[in-house]
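Practice problem: predict the structure.
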Amino acid sequence: MEPKLDTGDTAWLLVSCALVLLMTPALALFYGGMVRRKNVLSTIMHSMVAIPIVSIVWALVGFSLAFAPSHGGLIGGLDYVGLKGLVGQLQVGELKLTVPALAFAAFQMMFAVITPALISGAFAERIKFSAYCTLVALWSLLVYVPVAHWVWNPGGWLFKLGALDFAGGTVVHATAGASALVCALVIGARDGYPTKKALPHNLTMTMTGAGILWFGWFGFNAGSAITAGDLASVAFMATHLGAAGGSVGWVVVETAHRGKATALGCASGLVAGLVAITPAAGFVTPLASIVIGFLGGGLCYAGVLLKDKLRYDDSLDAFGVHGVGGIFGALITGVFATKAVNAAGQDGLLYGNPGQLKTQFIAVSVSVLYAVVVTYVILKVIDATMGLRVDRNDEIEGLDSVIHGEEGYAMASTAVSEARPEDDEDEAPVRSPSLVPLLAK
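Answer:
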C-alpha cells in the first residue's frame, strides 16, 4: 500500500521537531547553572555549538548512513547524502511515512544534536573548545549514527533482533552516558579534585532548564510516534508520569539518605525519570510509567553517589543520570512492554515473554560497549593531535575569559568576586552540587 500524506501527522511532527530542538538550549541552562560562575558561558557553549556542528554532519552524511537502505544491518548507504532525493517523498528506505521525508529527517536531526551535548556534563570546566568541537563531530558520526541505524532502521541488526527503543534510551542516553564516563576517566579530574567543594553558581538557571527540558521532552517521546494518534497520546502520558515518578523517587531516596530534599534533587529526579521512560514510552501502560520513573529516579541518585565511591570526576553527572537511567530504562522496557499498548512492539517479561528482556540486554550491552571503545579511540586521537584539556592556569582563571574572552556576568564581576570566596582562583569544583551539603557534614 502506497503511503499517503497526512497533514495532521505532519503538523504534529514539525511541532515535535521544534520541541526537541528547544531541549538543547534547555540543557545548556540546566548544565550552566551547576558550574562555577567563571565557566558558565563555556558550559552553555558546549550545548549551543553542538546544534550547528551536528546539524551539518547530519545533513551531509549522517542521516543517509542512519536511515538509507541497510548494508548488512550495520550501516546505511549514501542514497541521501546532502538530504538529496527527500523532497516530495513519503518513504525513507524501508520506512513508509505519512509525513514528508524531509520532516522525518529534521526530527531525527534534533535527536542527533542533543546526544553529544549530553556528554559535555562529564568534563565541564576543563576541556579545550577546539577539542570539544572535534569530539562532537566525530562522535556523532562514528558512534551515534551507527547505533541509530542498528536500532531504528528496519534493516538494522538490532531492529531485526526485536530490540525496543521507542525514543532513544539506548541510542541516545545509554551511548551518551557510557561515553561520558569514558571522557571523565580519560580527560581526568578537575584541579583540586576530590578535596575542594563545588557549589552551583545559579540554581534558578538549572531549575528553569529542567522545566524546559520537561516541556520539550513531550516532543522527544510523543513525537517519536510520528503520527498524531493513540500512540502519541500513550507516549505523551508516559512521559509526564515518568518525569513525575522520577522526581518523587529521587526526593524520597535523597530524603532518606540525607534527611532533606533539595531543589536540585527535584530537578535531577525529573530528568532521571524522563531518561528512564524514554525507551519505554510507546510500549508501556501509564501505571508502569510511574513505576519506571520512580525506580529510575532512585537508581540515578545512587548512580550519582557512585562517582564518590570510585573517585572519578563526572562533573555534572552525565553518566549518573543519562548512563544509569538510559541503561535501566532500556532493560526495564523488556519487563513492562505490552502489545496491548502497542501492537507493533513486543510483550515483556510481565506479559509472558522473558526473551524480550534478553533482547534488551543484548542491545544495550552491544551499544554501550561499542560507544565506550570508539569514544576512547576518538579521545586518544584528539589528545595526540591537539590536546584535550586546558592547562592548569587557564582552568584556574576560568574558561569563559580564557577561551571565549567573555564573562557571563561582566557587569557585576568585581562585586560578586568579592562576595563569593568560593570562586577564588585556587578553588575548583569537584562534586555534583546535589552532594555538596552531604559531603560537607
